[in-house]
Amino acid sequence: MADKRAFVTGHPIAHSRSPKIHGYWLRQYGIDGSYQAIDVAPADFAAFLSSLGEHGYHGGNVTIPHKEAAFAGVAHRDHAAEEIGAVNTLWFEDGVLWGGNTDGYGFAANLDEHAAGWAANGPAVVLGAGGASRAVIHALKERGIRDIRIVNRTLARAEELSRHFGPGVSAHGAAAVGELLADAGLLVNTTALGMHGDATLSADPARLPDHAIVTDIVYVPLETPLLAAARARGLKTVDGLGMLLHQAVPGFERWFGRKPEVTPELRRMIVADIEVH
Ligand code: ATR
Prior knowledge:
By secondary structure, the chain is α/β, with parallel strands linked by helices. It is built from 12 helices and 12 strands.
């Protein structure tokens, strides 16, 4: 059995690309470790969490639908998890189970890699007010963006997030999006819209200033309709795959003791996987 063991759990989990990412790094660095996907039904999650130590796991990742249950079930949480209200990374410290959230870190690290200086670009418009939006807003706040505009089909959910994150984070309904874009430096899509050509919330990149950066956390397809429209408009775009790759870094470092690198080769491997599925 491998020396250090980690996992990703979700339901379903077969589609997860995390085993490919961590498997690549384990091979790359010659570490005697393993990372496996484990399907756990919601009713069994609490028992799974409490049995981690006895099964010899150093920790793991948690994905849909268990991120909130993991938040509730760990003994300690890091600051990001508290702010986001969900846990995606588990590890042990002195035998005690910790939960963290690396989604906001992954989001910011992806922009650092592909759009250096992004945080100084001006107000940010965030489309969507779900779990992914919370991670993005947390990252934007951490990086000092003082004007964050949440736009959501359901205004009440945006208002809830605005209250949660406090001053500098405002809530808007879909009708306001055009005017909110006029002086924005960053546009982030955190919703699945655009994938299905749904027009209930549409942000036209033509309304953005020339220096604006557009990013989408959706990475299938790699170039979403929003990114394609932004590119056609001549704007800087960053796809969402890097967020997936970078959010994996802190977990790997905790379990396996080495900070891994997000390399072009790793990206190519995951892009190839997206293309065949
Ligand atoms: P996630 O955790 O991936 O963010 P979520 O919590 O279900 O998922 O949130 C989905 C987000 O996408 C919400 O902002 C949702 O808008 P509502 O709050 O109005 O439901 C948004 N969304 C999903 N489908 C949409 C659509 N067809 N048009 C506009 N917004 C949509």
